[in-house]
Write a structure and sequence with these properties.
The complex is a heterotrimer of chains A (208), B (196) and C (171). Helix content of chain A is 40%, strand content 9%. With 208 residues, chain A is α/β, with parallel strands linked by helices. Chain B is globular and about 45 Å long. Chain C contains nine helices and no strands. In chain C, helix 2 packs across helix 5 and helix 7 crosses helix 8. Chain C is globular and about 50 Å long. The chains are: A alpha/beta (208), B mainly alpha (196), C mainly alpha (171). At the B-C interface, helix 1, helix 2, helix 3, helix 4 and helix 5 of B face helix 1, helix 2, helix 4, helix 5 and helix 6 of C.
Amino acid sequence: MKPRIVLAAFIIPLGLIIAAIPQNTTVPYKLTAHQLLAESNLRSKYVSPEQVAHMLVSKDPTLQLIDVRSQDEYDKYHLEGAVNIPITDLLAEKYAYLINQEVKMNVFYSNGTVVANEAWMITRQLGYNNNYILEGGLNYWAETILNPIKPANTSPNEEFARYDFRKAAGTALGAAPAETLTAPENSQPATAIPIIVKPKKKKAAGGC
Amino acid sequence: MGPLIVNEIITENTNLLFAFLIGIGFGFVLEQSGFSSSRKLAGVFYGYDAVVLKVFFTAAITGMLGLLFFSLFGWLDLSLVYINPTFLSSSILGGVIMGAGFIIGGYCPGTSFCGASIGKIDAFVFIAGLFIGVALFGWGFPLWEKLYLAKDLGDPKVSRLLGISDGLFALLLILVALVMFWAAELAEKKFPREEY
Amino acid sequence: MNAKKYINPYLGGVLLGMVLLAANFVSGRGLGASGAIKSCIVSAATTVAPAAAENSGFITEYTEKHDGHPMKSWLVFQMLGVIVGGFVSGVIAGRLKWKVEHSPKITSKKRLVLALTGGILFGWGSQMGRGCTSGSALSGMAVLSLGGFVSMMAIFGTAFALAYFFRKNWI
């Protein structure tokens, strides 16, 4: 048999198969459903408001707050230094460098935790690391950091220490300070200029 | 899973080792197929020896089918594979100049190294020419920089431009290639030449 | 020396396709040749005339895209492999021989002049076209890149068109 016919006998059927089968467009998931379930039950995916407040006050450069609410809500109020990535745009190419990186600590937040949780789920499933959720969302943030409730006189000392921290942080972060006579500090205009971190996974370089 | 280097399964240096091994395979196959002989290479343009056409298209099709099947089985993430960018003007102009170089010099860069490795002196001279040509390009770069960067189309896939799936395009290319092979074999019969 | 016959071109093509596939699987890129020469030129230029190299758009474009020493590149290692692979194949097939291959109708000297001319043209064209036959046309076609097909058609089309004028050199 001619080699050309032999070749044809192999590549034509293979060509037919590949033409008939739909392309594999599934994103390769890095986690199985079981792993994801196990991870999402961990408390470690949450970051407490205190920790975020502490990082904000100390201007920790590794913190990257990501507001997953809509643009309108973001414009009305957002945490200092937060970037707005509405959940609907989470997978947009232009944000990939932000959510898929290994340097900063991303903290998703929404009003509650539902939307932030969704964002975390999606990014985690894509295999991205360093993504966290603000515990309790903005609502809890307001309760704890902006308007901390003064503990009862009978409370243990730690309660008071926490209250003092929250109040101090809240003041620093622009909440109206209660029980003080000093004029409220103006909240610094939140800058939404993210530091561009080199994307970890780059296409292989090539070319002649 | 693949590409191994992008997914950090192997290190940068292992990658270079693989480059060397892949190069050995590349050179070995080229030489075994007869790409070390300029007269054999040039044969395709006169119809007496279509080895270039056959090897070139069979290799492109094998590679293409392999990539598509690897992607189908989830072994290779095609979105991480380098796709040559398309700059229309420079691609065409470069291709035309390369075509002229091919018919005048009888080699292309890969095959000239292959020919040189078995002692073809014309291949060594061709390589010397390549160095001069690349240096000239670099030296006069400002003169043609504009042209070099003109008509940037990104890295489009032909299949996407035609609006068909990659697989269907591969099938069409296979059929076209087989017709060309058939025509080439007719030509080889018509213009018989000794083996070089 | 009795040279062995070449392998069947279709078999050669399948094997070459597998090498290409391996390159894509391991390194996410295709094969290439002229890039290795570019690396050599870049490293020579930066060593001999660093000041001039700084000002050359061609070289800065290269160094921006590549970290480390220009010679420590994938293509340089691959081309070293090509030389070894070609040599091994030549030894096995008994094809090792110093010679200038040319048509009986032209002299060796003419062949060498033509080879040099062709080399210069190919070198220049490979930079303009962002890759040679292997780097742009073959590897580009395997990943269905438009640029690969354009290069392939331009290279082979021109060579076919000019073949008539250079027939004495080959037939």
